[in-house]
């Protein structure tokens, strides 16, 4: 992408592509370049939601939590009804052990996510991290389709697989086996 031109002289679409490619690399030099590119692109308001989330994950992985959190809060101020942004931020809080903050954010997400597809998995994960296995099981069961014993649509089967995988991740092997 940069053959014959500097990174800064690339068209915006190519800069974004380069940042995305570099972000997937494990070496610190590539990740540092990705952070620099994403920073410039974000300052110029050139990033879409998924690119912002990629940038936030990159910052988190580079132990730049304050920048990551600032980015996530700024994004939430602009896209406050977007459950994917909320879910990503809450997952980061849970990973950092900020359980109280994560719980209050889950409560906010619950207001936006009437179906429960976004907040219930986060509730289960948080309960697991806090050692509350009864809440894990109860929450995961809320995700399951009501007609679990009958014929399921392909979407319902996919949901059952997702819940089973989450049950395994949360240590509820009994529920996973039942599914």
Description:
The chain is mainly alpha-helical. It contains 10 helices and no strands. It has helices at 12-23, 28-43, 49-61, 65-78, 83-95, 99-112, 119-129, 133-143, 154-169, 173-178. Helix 1 (12-23) runs antiparallel to helix 2. The longest helix has 16 residues, at 28-43. The chain starts with 11 loop residues before the first helix and ends with a helix. The mean pLDDT is 89.
Give a brief rundown of this model.
The protein has 179 residues and is an all-alpha fold. The chain contains 10 helices and no strands. The protein has helices at 12-23, 28-43, 49-61, 65-78, 83-95, 99-112, 119-129, 133-143, 154-169, 173-178.
Task: Provide keyphrases for this structure.
179 residues, elongated
Count of individual helical segments: 10
The largest sheet is: none
Number of strands: 0
Low-confidence stretches: none
Secondary-structure element pattern, one letter each: HHHHHHHHHH
SSE order and pairing:
Layout: H1 12-23, H2 28-43, H3 49-61, H4 65-78, H5 83-95, H6 99-112, H7 119-129, H8 133-143, H9 154-169, H10 173-178
């Amino acid at each position: 992408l940069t053959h014959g031109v500097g990174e800064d002289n690339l068209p915006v679409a190519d800069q974004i592509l380069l940042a995305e490619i570099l972000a997937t690399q494990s070496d610190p030099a590539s990740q540092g370049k990705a952070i620099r590119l994403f920073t410039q692109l974000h300052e110029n308001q050139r990033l879409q939601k998924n690119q912002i989330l990629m940038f936030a994950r990159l910052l988190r992985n580079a132990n730049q939590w304050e920048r990551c959190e600032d980015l996530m809060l700024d994004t939430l101020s602009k896209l406050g009804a977007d459950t994917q942004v909320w879910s990503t931020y809450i997952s980061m809080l849970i990973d950092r052990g900020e359980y109280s903050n994560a719980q209050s954010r889950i409560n906010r997400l619950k207001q936006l996510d009437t179906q429960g597809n976004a907040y219930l998995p986060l509730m289960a994960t948080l309960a697991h991290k806090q050692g509350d296995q009864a809440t894990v099981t109860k929450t995961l069961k809320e995700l399951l389709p009501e007609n679990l014993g009958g014929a399921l649509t392909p979407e319902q089967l996919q949901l059952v697989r997702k819940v089973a995988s989450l049950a395994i991740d949360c240590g509820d092997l009994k529920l996973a086996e039942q599914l």
